Structure formats: C-alpha cells, structure tokens
Amino acid sequence: MTPDYRQIIDGETWAFIARSEACYPPDTATRSVAEQRDFYNAMCRAFHVPHPPGVTACDRMAGRVPVRDYSLGGGAAHILFFHGGGFVVGGLDSHDDICAELCAGTGFDLTAVDYRLAPEHVFPADFDDAMAAWEDLGARVSGPIVLVGDSAGGTLCAGLSHALRGAARRPSGQVLVYPALGLSPESTSMELHAEAPMLTRAECLYYRKIRVGGDASLLDDPRCMPLRAESFAGLPPSIVISVECDPVAGDGRTYATAIANAGGAAQWRSEPGLVHGYLRARHSVERARVSFRRIVAAISALGSGATPGTRSNPRRSEPQRR
Fold this sequence. Notes:
Blueprint: H1 5-8, H2 11-21, H3 33-47, E1 56-62, E2 65-71, E3 78-82, H4 96-106, E4 109-113, H5 125-140, E5 145-150, H6 152-163, E6 173-177, H7 188-192, H8 201-211, E7 238-245, H9 249-261, E8 266-275, H10 286-303, E9 312-313
Parallel strand pairs: 3-4, 3-5, 5-6, 6-7, 7-8, 8-9
Antiparallel strand pairs: 1-2, 2-4
Helix pairs in contact: 5-6
C-alpha cells in the first residue's frame, strides 16, 4: 500500500518540495544530461545561503581532482565531503553552503570533492577520484579525517571506507545522509516508496544504470554498491541517517545493522516525515533544521574520537530484503 504522504509530510516540507519541483519542467526525464544538470544547478542556487561569518573557501587541485577547502581556522579533525546527485549532477557549487555550514558548525576544516560524473565517466572513475582526494588529504593533515556525504556522496564514503579497511591510514568515522548503498529494486523501501516525493524508484534505477554505463556486473563491486560486500568487519565508526519517505531508506538500516553484526560501531536513524534531498531545507523546515544539527553533532563526535552506539530509530522505514 502506498503511504499517505499528505498525512506523513508536514506543510513546511511540502512547501520545500514545491519549491524544488518548480525548478524542473515536467519532461525533465527526457531531457539531455546537460539540461538536467542545468536544472539541478538552478535549484541549488535557489536555496543557496551566504557562508557563515569567518568561513573561508579556496579551490585547488588534489592531483587531478578539483576540490574546495573550507576553514574557520582549523580544528581537531578534518572533514572529507562528497556531494549527492546520483553520480550525474552536482559539484562544488551545488553543496557549497552546506559545506560551509558543516565547517562552521563543527569547527573542523572541510574539503569538498568534485569527482567525475556519469555518463561521461562511469564507475570506477568516481571512486578513483574519491581515493585520490583521500590520499591527497592524508598527505596534508595528520589528525582524524571524517568522511561525510549525502545520497551518492554517502555511497562514495561507504565504498571508500570498504577499500581502506586494511590501510595504514583509515577514516576516523563516517556520516552518511540518506545514502544509496544497494539500490535493490526488490527492497522493502523501494517497493513501499516507489513514488515518493523528490526521489522515485524509477529514478534510482536510472542513476544506478547510468553510473555503471549499463554494465550490471560492476554493481557487485562493494566499492560501487557497499551492501554487496562479503564482510562488514573493520569499517570505521558509522552514523547513518535515512529519511522516512525515500526508496533508499532501507539501505541505511541494513548497512548499519551489518556493521554492528560484524562487531563494529554503528548507529542508524530514520528521520520521520522528511524526504530525499532535505539538506537544502535546513533553513525552511524545522524537522530538517533539527536533523542538520544532529548531523553536525555526529561529525563533531566522530572527529573527537567518540564511538557511536548501536541504537537505531526504526520508525516506519523498513530493512532491505537480503
């Protein structure tokens, strides 16, 4: 049965959804990738707010990968941030104000990564850029590094954490916000929220296909789809935040449970009544504002060496069928 989103989602969030959808024409799905990027960038500009006082930003190259460094004057840890956008849209500007506010809220310096996008560059190009950014940052800073990403960016964080399990230098933690980690069409959340506002099952499968250039065998690589891993041992302390009205909601719960079952530290939360992409609503929707504060607190805790418990908030979201 399709959820009654009119009952689940509050008026503030519906206003955010309407404002977001106003940036997209009805035939967006049939437009070229270049046009889709233009629509997405326009939407991000519509929600953009000025940087908090004192935060500086500077673009540079991490080897071959463009990055943007944010600073409030240092801190006990460093954030390595990967933006969402289905591996097709987004970049340094799309999440610029979000990154500046994470820097200000935690006091940690932050490096945002402009990894290559599909369809021009299919997996593992995005992962290779994530690894290059990690190696560059590791050579520059000696303190803890916390991986943070939303949606596709959360996927990259988890893939990177998997690849670094046996490395001498590993992430001190990861914070994943509405991540897509398996994208199984048969998962409970994919079926339940197939027509959710802001992200549908059809769109998830479109992004999954375009990321790998149609080569489904690449989806078995845990650097691409982290839930395909054979073992979840050795992963860093993880805080995973899903949203109730989202086809990928089950991915986060399944992932956190797998880490905990393997003896690791993980905490999962489902944010009630929120939708995919809600980070842009943090200034207009109270639920999103509160959740963003929790994200800042989670990053601060992991950067300071705290270990999350294995508590979860299972309200309404369902685990994947494995």
